[in-house]
Amino acid sequence: MINLGRWLRPGADGASMLGQVRSLFLVFCLLWSLVGVFGVEQGAGRETRVVTVAAIVLVELCLCWGYRRGTFPRALWLVEAPCVYLVAAASNFGVTIGLLYVWINFRALYGGRLDQLLGATCVVAIMGLGVGFDSLSLSDAVPLTVTALVGLIINHTLARGIGARDRAALRERVVAAAGARFAAVSDRGNAARAAAEAVAALDRSISATVLGTIAAGELRPIGYAGVAGRDAVDRTVNLATSGPAHQAALRPSGYAQIVGADATLFADQLGLPATDRVDLAPLAVGGKVFGLLVVTYDWCPQDDLSASLSTLADEAALTLDRLLTRSRLNIVVEHSHDALLLCGEQGTIRFANPAAARLLGIPREALTGRELHSLIHPDDLAAALAPQQRGAQIRRVRGPDPGSWTEFEVFVAYVTEHDGSRSLIFNARDISERQRLELELRHAQKLESVGRLAAGIAHEINTPMQFIGDNIRFLDESLTGLLALVAEVRERLDADADLARRMIELDVDFLVEEAPTAIRQTLEGVDRVATIVRAMKAFGHSGNDTMSPADLNEAIRNALTVAANEIRTVADVKTDLAKLPPVLCHIGDINQAVLNLVVNAAQAIGAAGRGRGEIRVSTRLDGHEAVIDVADTGTGVPPEIADKLFDPFFTTKPVGQGTGQGLPLIRRLIADRHHGSISFTSEHGAGTVFTVRLPIDSRHTPESTAAQAEVPV
User: Is the pLDDT of residue 447 over 60?
Assistant: First the structure.
């Protein structure tokens, strides 16, 4: 069945004032159709009445069809005009002539000037046929024709004015609705799509709308509406090669209109159908253009849309900028390493970022609604939340372990929000790494001071030892000749009893026998002191930040010499130092690393309590790496702590004897400073072997620079 209600409902513009006027005229046409049926002359035959009714019905169907579509094809004039003539002729141009007036006035509400000319031609033709074939007097035809034409002109003018008013009202509604949508969107993609759809709704002549951002001189679409396909989002337009016509739109408050071949080219670059006109409005914020609103048309619009397009472009730009700012703020907050809490003035937590959940060990959803004072140590609470604070405070905050408190660097600020309410911003920064680095720095400074002191002492010792050694060597050389002379004198003076007695009293034989031995032992002691001095000077040398080729074996010998006092009472040292090429390194770091490993080995042997042990230090060449092995017969590493051995502050020594910084320091010196690696194998109760690998040259640095590879066995 035909749904009459659907046909009586107006088209897309039915809710407008022009739509209401058209509906009113359509009702007049339907009512006058009844008058037309009864206005047929009484003497007319049945066929005439049937034809008249059929003509009236056909006219009304055409009018309803065009009313429903919102437009009339021009070919319908050729159908409607003959039917209206038949109805008028059936009444001898009497009362049914009113149908002519209502019909032409209704049709005046549609179409442009060409349609009105066609309507006027139809009116003149109908009246001319009445004068020529239906005995309509010219004196009657002329006023009827003039009246119909005047009504046609008046209603056409009225329709144009009402249509312009309706289109202006439509644009106002579209802009207002777009503002509401902009306020509700939460991401830039939805905002761009909402803006494009709003522009497409401004006028029926608009075929496509594209919003694009400008980066590096290229326009990249981010939203579209209309006939623009999804591939338009994948297109880019190089504005430097797309002609000068768009330049006016690249400044704030600007506007550009591209026509003709340039418009077709610009649309093609965006993947849009060919068009003769493209409008461009800038997307600008803060005096800077960051994008363009691109609009294409199927036909030239009846009104100037530049003001509406500029308004929508400005609103879209502000929305996109607001969302970009919000997105950047969210990125900063979500990826911040500091714990950020937004609390009410009374301390109830309203928002917590992921870092807060991680540092405090409490899920974000559990933090929301919790009281801030429950996270701060009671002794620090009043000072931490005191108003009018400046700068950072070191306060105790509850960490992941519920039973412990951790020191954080805390920033607190009281702010007034837009609604006038007061809020508290609590920023807690994890300073454990900074404290660790400060401790390491103090440790390094202490080592540096000790090194400088050792180098100074070595220098001071070296000077007297040099002249002592020189003098003893002089005595050694001189005594050799002197003893030979004494022997010869004794042979010549054997007859002198007094001289022989004196030589016996001086025990010259003993002096001749023991003096060379004493001098030789003294020289050995001097050489040993010189060796220790050289090792101390090499070990205490601070070096510089530039790597230089160095002899690893010499560095190991120096470290063993310096550590001899720690080692000699607990272990014997055996070395197996292979021939190595010079290694590009910071030799001071290597000295420190080897010394720490050797001292740790001696302490492990002492802790084992099994008597004197053994420390084996060996080197070897493995491809492009120099390898140092330090093995001991100490306690070994229990499997349960093997994965913690390189953790800062972890130590197996009694409280007060270890800082837990030795092995972490070695790892940083080897892995971070030299791109090498340190690993260990251990058998609990039997001993441990630490293996250090160093690239001989930075050009052969291993791809993997893992700090440690622990393999307890």
Answer: no
